[in-house]
Specification:
Blueprint: H1 2-7, E1 11-14, E2 17-20, H2 26-45, E3 49-53, E4 58-61, E5 65-67, E6 71-75, E7 86-87, E8 92-96, H3 102-115, E9 120-125, E10 130-137, E11 140-148, E12 152-154, E13 162-164, H4 166-169
Parallel strand pairs: 4-7, 8-9
Antiparallel strand pairs: 1-2, 3-6, 4-5, 6-8, 9-10, 10-11, 12-13
Length: 173
Amino acid sequence: MEALVRDLDLTEIINGEEIMGPSPFGRHQDIAANLFDIMRQHIKKNHLGKLLFSPLDVIFEEGMNRLQPDILFIRKENMEIFQDWIRGVPDMVCEIISPGSFEKDTQVKRAVYEKYKVPEYWVVIPELQTVEVLTIENERYKKHCIAELEGMVTSKVIEGLQFNVKEIFGQPW
Protein backbone atom coordinates (compact mmCIF):
# COMPACT_ATOMS: atom_id res chain seq x y z
CA MET A 1 0.00 0.00 0.00
CA GLU A 2 2.84 2.41 0.81
CA ALA A 3 4.28 2.08 -2.72
CA LEU A 4 0.86 2.81 -4.20
CA VAL A 5 0.42 5.91 -2.05
CA ARG A 6 3.84 7.20 -3.08
CA ASP A 7 2.86 6.83 -6.73
CA LEU A 8 -0.21 9.04 -6.26
CA ASP A 9 1.70 12.19 -5.38
CA LEU A 10 3.64 14.94 -7.13
CA THR A 11 6.99 13.16 -6.82
CA GLU A 12 9.21 13.08 -9.88
CA ILE A 13 12.49 11.27 -10.40
CA ILE A 14 14.94 13.43 -12.32
CA ASN A 15 18.34 11.97 -13.16
CA GLY A 16 17.91 9.38 -10.40
CA GLU A 17 16.96 11.91 -7.70
CA GLU A 18 13.48 11.90 -6.18
CA ILE A 19 12.02 15.42 -6.16
CA MET A 20 8.73 16.42 -4.54
CA GLY A 21 7.04 19.42 -6.11
CA PRO A 22 4.41 21.68 -4.58
CA SER A 23 0.84 21.59 -5.80
CA PRO A 24 0.06 24.26 -8.41
CA PHE A 25 -1.67 27.58 -7.68
CA GLY A 26 -5.20 28.33 -8.91
CA ARG A 27 -3.99 30.56 -11.79
CA HIS A 28 -1.79 27.70 -13.01
CA GLN A 29 -4.83 25.41 -13.00
CA ASP A 30 -6.98 27.97 -14.89
CA ILE A 31 -4.34 28.25 -17.62
CA ALA A 32 -3.88 24.47 -17.78
CA ALA A 33 -7.66 23.98 -18.10
CA ASN A 34 -7.96 26.60 -20.86
CA LEU A 35 -5.07 25.11 -22.81
CA PHE A 36 -6.34 21.56 -22.31
CA ASP A 37 -9.82 22.53 -23.54
CA ILE A 38 -8.47 24.13 -26.73
CA MET A 39 -6.12 21.26 -27.49
CA ARG A 40 -8.57 18.48 -26.61
CA GLN A 41 -11.33 19.84 -28.84
CA HIS A 42 -8.93 19.95 -31.78
CA ILE A 43 -7.42 16.52 -31.08
CA LYS A 44 -10.82 14.83 -30.65
CA LYS A 45 -12.36 16.52 -33.72
CA ASN A 46 -9.45 15.36 -35.88
CA HIS A 47 -8.91 11.93 -34.23
CA LEU A 48 -5.21 12.65 -33.67
CA GLY A 49 -4.50 10.81 -30.42
CA LYS A 50 -4.80 11.27 -26.67
CA LEU A 51 -4.29 14.34 -24.48
CA LEU A 52 -3.57 13.85 -20.77
CA PHE A 53 -2.81 16.05 -17.76
CA SER A 54 -0.84 15.91 -14.53
CA PRO A 55 -0.45 14.18 -12.22
CA LEU A 56 0.46 11.27 -14.48
CA ASP A 57 3.91 9.72 -14.55
CA VAL A 58 5.87 9.64 -17.77
CA ILE A 59 8.51 6.96 -17.28
CA PHE A 60 11.37 7.57 -19.68
CA GLU A 61 13.76 5.25 -17.87
CA GLU A 62 12.78 3.19 -14.81
CA GLY A 63 14.39 4.53 -11.62
CA MET A 64 16.17 7.30 -13.50
CA ASN A 65 13.67 9.68 -15.10
CA ARG A 66 9.96 9.75 -14.21
CA LEU A 67 8.43 13.16 -14.85
CA GLN A 68 4.94 14.68 -14.62
CA PRO A 69 4.45 17.30 -17.33
CA ASP A 70 1.36 19.49 -16.89
CA ILE A 71 -0.09 18.36 -20.24
CA LEU A 72 1.06 15.70 -22.69
CA PHE A 73 -0.04 14.40 -26.06
CA ILE A 74 0.37 10.96 -27.62
CA ARG A 75 -0.31 10.44 -31.32
CA LYS A 76 -2.72 7.61 -32.05
CA GLU A 77 0.05 5.63 -33.76
CA ASN A 78 2.13 5.76 -30.53
CA MET A 79 -0.59 4.61 -28.11
CA GLU A 80 1.39 1.55 -27.02
CA ILE A 81 3.19 3.80 -24.51
CA PHE A 82 -0.16 4.52 -22.76
CA GLN A 83 -0.27 1.81 -20.09
CA ASP A 84 -0.68 2.12 -16.32
CA TRP A 85 1.41 5.25 -16.72
CA ILE A 86 3.13 6.56 -19.81
CA ARG A 87 6.04 4.25 -20.51
CA GLY A 88 8.06 5.84 -23.28
CA VAL A 89 8.30 9.16 -25.07
CA PRO A 90 5.15 11.26 -25.56
CA ASP A 91 4.88 13.30 -28.75
CA MET A 92 4.39 16.58 -26.87
CA VAL A 93 4.88 17.74 -23.29
CA CYS A 94 3.87 21.07 -21.79
CA GLU A 95 5.14 22.72 -18.62
CA ILE A 96 3.28 25.68 -17.12
CA ILE A 97 5.95 27.57 -15.24
CA SER A 98 5.43 28.72 -11.67
CA PRO A 99 7.85 31.20 -10.05
CA GLY A 100 9.24 28.42 -7.86
CA SER A 101 9.66 25.94 -10.72
CA PHE A 102 11.31 28.13 -13.37
CA GLU A 103 14.78 26.56 -13.26
CA LYS A 104 13.49 23.01 -12.82
CA ASP A 105 11.01 23.28 -15.71
CA THR A 106 13.03 25.35 -18.18
CA GLN A 107 16.46 23.83 -17.62
CA VAL A 108 16.45 20.54 -15.71
CA LYS A 109 13.28 19.00 -17.16
CA ARG A 110 14.00 20.49 -20.59
CA ALA A 111 17.35 18.64 -20.59
CA VAL A 112 15.55 15.36 -19.78
CA TYR A 113 12.96 15.91 -22.51
CA GLU A 114 15.74 16.75 -24.96
CA LYS A 115 17.78 13.68 -23.92
CA TYR A 116 14.84 11.37 -24.72
CA LYS A 117 13.98 13.38 -27.86
CA VAL A 118 10.41 14.39 -26.98
CA PRO A 119 9.38 15.82 -30.38
CA GLU A 120 7.70 18.96 -29.00
CA TYR A 121 8.10 20.83 -25.70
CA TRP A 122 5.82 23.72 -24.73
CA VAL A 123 6.85 26.30 -22.12
CA VAL A 124 3.98 28.42 -20.78
CA ILE A 125 4.95 31.43 -18.65
CA PRO A 126 1.84 32.93 -17.01
CA GLU A 127 3.56 36.06 -15.66
CA LEU A 128 4.65 37.02 -19.19
CA GLN A 129 1.55 35.59 -20.93
CA THR A 130 3.92 33.72 -23.19
CA VAL A 131 3.86 30.33 -24.90
CA GLU A 132 7.03 29.02 -26.49
CA VAL A 133 6.92 25.87 -28.60
CA LEU A 134 10.21 24.02 -29.11
CA THR A 135 10.79 21.10 -31.47
CA ILE A 136 13.65 18.61 -31.71
CA GLU A 137 15.99 19.21 -34.62
CA ASN A 138 19.35 17.44 -34.79
CA GLU A 139 18.89 16.21 -31.20
CA ARG A 140 18.47 19.77 -29.80
CA TYR A 141 15.43 21.94 -29.16
CA LYS A 142 14.88 24.78 -31.60
CA LYS A 143 12.21 27.46 -31.36
CA HIS A 144 9.18 26.57 -33.51
CA CYS A 145 7.04 29.52 -32.41
CA ILE A 146 6.64 32.01 -29.60
CA ALA A 147 3.56 34.07 -28.77
CA GLU A 148 3.79 36.86 -26.20
CA LEU A 149 0.63 38.66 -25.01
CA GLU A 150 -0.95 38.08 -28.41
CA GLY A 151 -0.23 36.12 -31.54
CA MET A 152 -0.74 32.62 -32.77
CA VAL A 153 0.51 29.46 -31.15
CA THR A 154 1.08 26.62 -33.61
CA SER A 155 2.15 23.03 -33.19
CA LYS A 156 4.35 21.02 -35.49
CA VAL A 157 3.31 17.76 -33.79
CA ILE A 158 -0.43 18.28 -33.26
CA GLU A 159 -1.47 18.61 -36.88
CA GLY A 160 -3.45 21.78 -37.64
CA LEU A 161 -3.47 23.11 -34.06
CA GLN A 162 -3.43 26.90 -34.04
CA PHE A 163 -4.92 29.40 -31.57
CA ASN A 164 -4.39 32.90 -30.21
CA VAL A 165 -2.34 32.94 -27.01
CA LYS A 166 -4.94 35.26 -25.43
CA GLU A 167 -7.35 32.31 -25.31
CA ILE A 168 -5.41 30.56 -22.56
CA PHE A 169 -4.62 33.57 -20.36
CA GLY A 170 -8.15 34.99 -20.34
CA GLN A 171 -10.76 34.48 -17.64
CA PRO A 172 -11.90 30.82 -17.36
CA TRP A 173 -15.57 31.75 -16.79
